[in-house]
Every structure is written in C-alpha cells, then in structure tokens.
Write a structure and sequence with these properties.
Elements (H helix, E strand, L loop, with lengths): L1 E4 L2 E8 L8 H10 L2 E11 L1 H16 L4 E4 L3 H9 L11
Parallel strand pairs: 2-3, 3-4
Antiparallel strand pairs: 1-2
Length: about 90
Amino acid sequence: MIREDGPRLALEGPLTLATVAGLVEEGRSLVASADRLLDLAAVTQVDSAALALLLSWVRAARSAGRQLTIVHAPAPLVSLAALYDVDTILPLGR
C-alpha cells in the first residue's frame, strides 16, 4: 500500500513478488508528478522484486525530471541492492 502525505510517500507491508505488481503503475505516476521522499520504515519484508519496483520508480522520476529520495530502507533491501550492484543507482538511506 502507498500512502501519500504531501511530497512524502510511505510504503507498508511486504515488498515481494506477490505484492509489488499492484504498486508499479500507481507509484510511477506518483513519483513522476513531483519530487518525492519515499519512506520504507513500515516495509516488513523484501525480495528482488522490491529492487525492481524501486528501480522502475527511480527511472520514472528521472525521466520526468523529478527527484526521488528513499529513506528508512530496511537492512535486507540495502544488502540486496549491494549484492545486485545497484546500491549506487538507488538513493537508499537508512
């Protein structure tokens, strides 16, 4: 689920292969519409699908000339990003 509070977007629950498909298009639209702060503090589980989702949102934001900043990234997501060598592409803050 994506919660929007002004420029802040918050994701909640698991970001896995079973859950991200329903978030892709809504998130792309939101990050392309304004500079955004994406808060992942309430994310409970991640897998490689979470990386794919976030990479698509970063691309959408950049294509629209917008900035996407990701904060409170869970440690497993940071580890996955490093493992797949995309940690320099994703603006992950902890």
